[in-house]
Amino acid sequence: PDPILNFQTATDIAKGDAQAFWVRVRAPKKQPPGLYSGKLVVEADGAKAFAFDLTIRVFGFRMPDRTPLPLAVTFMPIFYEPNGQGGWREGPYARADWRPHAWEWADFLADYYLTTDTLYGRADWTPDFASLAKLKQQGRLGRFNLGYYGACGEGDETIKKWRQATIDVIRPRYEKAKELGLLKHAYIYGCDENPKGLFPAVERAAQMLKAEFPGVPVMTTTYDNSFGQESVIKSMDVFCPLTPKFDPARATVARGAGKQVWWYICCGPRHPHANMFIEYPAIEGRLLMGAMTAKYRPDGFLYYQISIWNADPITKGPFTTWDPRSWTTYHGDGSWTCMGPGGTPLPTIRLENFRDGLEDYAYARILEATIAKIEAAPALRATRGDWLQRARKLLVVPTGLVKSLTEYTRDPALVYGYRQRLAEAIEAAGVVPAEL
Question: Are 128 and 99 in contact (CB under 8 A)?
């Protein structure tokens, strides 16, 4: 039960089966705050089977139109032979059903705070500039990569070949992004999980990229757990460790030197760390993007792939032939989306929790910004001392929710309760909430 079959409005349910339904409610941007009540009716064979009350509370502030946390996440549909049987699939599985729906996918992903992007943009790839420009116009554009780079060895001939394979490939994308006014959303990623022995070559690559493409952050998941403070890698803008290697104290020092420190997950880490495997409780993805991010404050989140698809599109349900096996022996790793009829977008329960977590984080950021707004206005500060004291305490994530990166709740009620308290505090400020 992971794909959400949003193309279905009715389904046959066999006797003895219990069928879950995903109910999604959306409030228009200008919806007045307050309580809204109604009923949800379930029909069987055209007749009312049962109904239950549904009450929605709309708060007096808005979710941001784009992600409250910088993201570098790959959407590049690929096919991998699962269970270690070998290699990227070719032939009938190497489908391109989704391509005629490129904008539909871009629009769909933006609704989940994601941007059509890939960390691994090689020579035969180019950013979807049409979709990126449209998202920017809508105020929904996140970050996107201009191209992948590898470590650069020594010697004139080696450096020349590296420049041809990297600088010359990225150059036209950089110029196009500049022409469209998109450069402030761009980054350059590479040296994926490089070991210590490659640190000098990583630094050499970063130096040249910084010189050639000024203003565009250069990012890596190279295993420099000092974040440039105890290594030769000085030119890197963004270090991105695996979540267990995220060290808040070291990150603070690195930020003092002008660096950013993100974090990432992939086929690791395993329990007790949070991850997004199908077997893991879905609350983990929500906590990772929400309360854990609010507590530890990484500068961004990176994920290598959300579209490893090892099955044909889903065309009917509730039972499907979608294969949850993705990268080697993992279930759902690198695969948070599915294809619906004709290659159209389908979300998963894990993708919904990813967005819910980012919204949880947005609540904390909006409260934080509202505190700053009141503190900056003497007249407001003088009349809201008690509120400021309560609000500052609320920004401290409760240990019952997240005690550490390996100790956290499995109780949804605690997540809902904390989000509710943040929202009520924002409304109680008595000012127009600050927007992110």
Answer: no
Query: What distance, in Å, lies between the first and last C-alpha atoms of the chain?
Result: 34
Query: Strand, helix or coil at 129?
Result: helix
Residue 287's identity, in one-letter code, is: L
Predicted confidence pLDDT, tens digits, the chain (436 residues): 799 999 998 889 999 999 888 988 989 989 999 999 999 999 998 899 999 999 999 999 999 999 999 999 999 888 766 655 556 655 444 567 888 999 999 999 999 999 999 999 888 889 999 999 999 999 999 999 999 999 999 999 999 999 999 999 999 999 999 999 999 999 999 999 999 999 999 999 999 999 999 999 999 999 999 999 999 999 999 999 999 999 999 999 999 999 999 999 999 999 999 999 999 999 999 999 999 999 999 999 999 999 988 888 999 998 998 888 888 888 999 999 999 999 999 999 999 999 999 999 999 999 999 999 999 999 999 999 999 999 999 999 999 999 999 999 999 999 999 999 999 999 999 998 877 8
Q: Cβ contacts of residue 70 below 8 Å, gap of 6+?
A: 142, 143, 262, 299, 300, 301
C-alpha dihedral, 405 to 411 to 412 to 417, nearest 10°: -90
The CA–CA distances, whole Å, from 105 to 36, 102, 208 equal 31, 5, 34
